[in-house]
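Lecture 7, part B: from sequences to assemblies.

Below are the input chains for today's worked example.
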Amino acid sequence: MSRRTFHRAPEGERRHDLIEATLDCIAESGLQGATVRQIAIKAGVTAGLIRHYFASKEHILQEAYRVVIGRLTEKAERVTGDPEERLRSFIVINLTEPVANSRSLSLWASFISRVSVDPQLAAIHREGYLGFRNALESLLADFLESKGQEADPARCRALAIAINGLLDGLWLEGCLAGELFEERELVSIALTSIEALIGLPIGAPATTQ
Amino acid sequence: MSRRTFHRAPEGERRHDLIEATLDCIAESGLQGATVRQIAIKAGVTAGLIRHYFASKEHILQEAYRVVIGRLTEKAERVTGDPEERLRSFIVINLTEPVANSRSLSLWASFISRVSVDPQLAAIHREGYLGFRNALESLLADFLESKGQEADPARCRALAIAINGLLDGLWLEGCLAGELFEERELVSIALTSIEALIGLPIGAPATTQ
DNA sequence: GGCGTAGTTGTTCAAGCGTATAATAACATC
DNA sequence: GATGTTATTATACGCTTGAACAACTACGCC
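Predicted structure of the full complex, as structure tokens:
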């Protein structure tokens, strides 16, 4: 009986592949589907190798969650342009591919369901959430200031919480049942709604569109 | 070795107990924690009994999901009073106990993570979501009409989607990290925001409060 | 008051789980 | 090209899982 030949990959690449395989497993069949054997099969290696890179199954799941959160927030946190443009981009990015799709939601929900149980995951979540909301709050402050309004901290906080909630909710619904909405309907609703919340135009398309 | 004596419960009661035990298991340790043995222990019976009431583990999970969705929506769908009062109650109910708490979120997220995988769960979800949004849309139409505004269907739809999103998002954040917010801060933000979206007062407390 | 039905228990089974470890193959260095 | 290191495989172990089933017991019915 002969051993199979194998490829000896650079450490970073192999870790990345294993995490990617983990996410595939979770997206396809939930956290329960992410067994070390399934992950190994998906990554094209044997199960034992996973323990060579990750101290335990918990560890690979935690790293995988970091990757998920990173992908949900990195694009939005790197918007460019003038304040109005940045705010608008932030909104659009969060409600369109690749941030908004059903795979992202499945992954996100899988981990969220364990946040209240696993303190490690809770810490990772908290970090990601506050980073996201602070980015939004600072975008808002810049935008209000650019429009000549004083950026009252209390109002910025309330606005950031409300807009963050609105974006989260619309993202959720779009991912869960995108076919219930017209093309770009959610983006359009988000822009119009946020204009109403702030009381200033941010370049939303006309409502007739 | 003697058998333990056992209580012969009415069918409805026992099914209810088993589902409740299932929800406890899921809330405490996720879907993976809801094994037939754990459920049985939690319900104070033996594992085999579960198969007497439910054809398979999948079946008890589906029924449990129906219960979760029911609890998240039943209270809000039964508000009473004049249109403004009903709308305000709808908002408050969805952002306060017992609808908004971390256990509800854990349960909800656990199931949501499987919606895209399991068609049965997807159907149950769709039903619950549309029922909820339609209830909101009809509340809005009544409210607008009571204020002498024509209830334009397109606007009602867009408003319902936006408000539903806002409520979902705020509910989510409150459940996930309630300690990041002041007492009733989320309710207050929701009411103020929705007033801005609709363009009419609905009895939100003054912003200074 | 005995009997039949069905709710409930205890036990078993094969499959799959996470983890541990020895053997092996690929690569770096000299 | 021999050698040492380590990434990778293969296999094993102890445990839990969902499911199945036979034995047992509470209760309704006649």
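Note for the exam: The CA atoms of residues 154 and 175 of chain B lie 31 Å apart. Keep this in mind when comparing with the next example.
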